[in-house]
TrEMBL record:
Residues annotated as transmembrane: 45-64, 76-96, 102-129
Record keywords, A-Z: Membrane, Transmembrane, Transmembrane helix
Organism: Clostridium cylindrosporum DSM 605
Keyword Transmembrane helix: yes
Protein name stated in the entry: YitT family protein
Superkingdom of source: Bacteria
Signal peptide residue numbers: none
InterPro entries: YczE/YyaS-like
Keyword Transmembrane set for record: yes
């Protein structure tokens, strides 16, 4: 029980920190990551918050993941809902400061990217399933036999164009995000000596199977 609680705490710490990182990059106002350009564009089009746009997009992608046969974990579902919820709590309550100095805005963006890297480690290392967007990347890669790099770049470029046409903010910060987040994640993994290749995820069906086995063992003991 204690181990499970610590795992969930680590998961939610990662999701919260990721929302903090996103909020920092938004308030830097130098351009958003491709997905956040899309979320902002959708927010402007529909008058929902960026957090809600994140949740709606994640839900649609999660359904596509499921239809394409990808396995879903508790972390996948939490990712879909709670990053958006945490983003709204931070943004709507003006928790993250806004700076007008260009130097401070650049620093704000870099800090946000660094925090997103640390958050990714916390979120992924619990082994409770990947996020919806990572799931669809894997599913498309399997279906098309294209390289992960080609699929990921195609996805990022597509959502960036759609988001920009919807009114999302793209700029020099967008390029910084595209290049910087990957390096930040790699740096965070190095700091914590985490090898993602050795990680085995536990999905919802694994938990259901485990519970069934425990219930069956309990019944056999009672008999």
């Amino acid at each position: 029980m204690k181990k499970s609680l610590l795992t969930l705490l680590k998961l939610f710490l990662g999701l919260f920190l990721y929302a903090v990182g996103i909020a920092l990059t938004i308030n830097a106002d130098l351009g958003l990551s491709p997905w956040d350009v899309y979320h902002q564009g959708l927010s402007k089009l529909t008058s929902i918050t960026m957090g809600q746009a994140n949740i709606v997009t994640g839900l649609v992608i999660l359904i596509i993941d499921w239809k394409l046969g990808e396995r879903i974990g508790i972390g996948t579902i939490c990712n879909m809902f709670f990053i958006g919820i945490f983003m709204d709590l931070l943004m709507l309550n003006d928790v993250i400061p806004v700076f007008h100095s260009m130097i401070l805005r650049v620093i704000t963006m870099l800090i946000g990217i660094f925090i997103m890297g640390i958050a990714t480690y916390f979120y992924i290392s619990v082994g409770l399933g990947s996020g919806p967007r990572d799931g669809i990347m894997v599913a498309i890669t399997k279906k098309t036999n294209k390289s992960v790099r080609f699929v990921r770049n195609s996805m990022e470029f597509s959502v960036l164009i759609i988001g920009y046409l919807l009114g999302g903010s793209a700029g020099i910060g967008t390029l910084i995000m595209v290049v910087g987040v990957g390096y930040s994640v790699q740096f965070a993994f190095k700091i914590f000596k985490f090898d993602v290749r050795k990680l085995e995820h536990k999905y919802i069906d694994d938990h259901v199977k485990y519970l069934k086995e425990k219930l069956s063992e309990k019944k056999n003991v009672q008999v």
